[in-house]
Amino acid sequence: MADMTRRQFLKVTGVTLAGSSLALIGFSPTPALAEVREFKLARATETRNTCPYCSVACGLLMYSLGDGAKNAQASIFHIEGDPDRPVNRGTLCPKGAGLIDFIHSKSRLTHPEYRAPGSDKFERVSWDDALNRVARLMKDDRDKNFIAKNKDGVTVNRWITVGFLGASATTNETAYLTYKVVRSTGVLAFDNQARL
Ligand code: SF4
Description:
By secondary structure, the chain is of the alpha+beta class. The chain is 33% helix and 23% strand. The chain has helices at residues 6-24, 30-34, 94-97, 99-103, 127-145, 172-184, and strands at residues 45-50, 59-65, 75-81, 113-114, 123-124, 147-149, 155-166, 187-192. The strands form 3 sheets. The chain has a 3-stranded antiparallel beta sheet. Residues 51, 53-54, 56-58, 88, 92-93, 95-96 line the site of iron/sulfur cluster (SF4).
């Protein structure tokens, strides 16, 4: 205000007066300004998940739109921190906050691929083929390398030629079951990305 010249002051007050006069004769923008914009998450489906990036395991709320039809593919359009997750209480670090770009990245792998021994390229395979192959290889390896007793004759039931990493996007319950199943095979090298 101290730097305002007399001419500038008159200009400002003139514009203000004109605005008030328009409002008095019925051209008030108040109803337009008061119009509530539709909340962008209003019709979205909310899904809870866990950030896949690091072992902090921050909780996420993911919002998707789709018409709910069986053959319609829902698309995620917004992600934010889950305020109910005690780990992060609604916050996300910059990596987690950028997850929407990771999800829609063109280079994101969404199907299993296989590179045959000696080949220089990966080929797409079905989930059934991938899971059957993994199961076959694990069974063969366990049959070959399982250690029932150590050299002193003590039962140890170890399978130490294979390691297992659980995904972060699991609930406590599924992580618990994964742990039980993996340990029951004798695997010692086991970790869960989210350290759940
Ligand atoms: S939001 Fe950040 S801190 Fe949290 S799990 Fe993801 S990468 Fe880790």
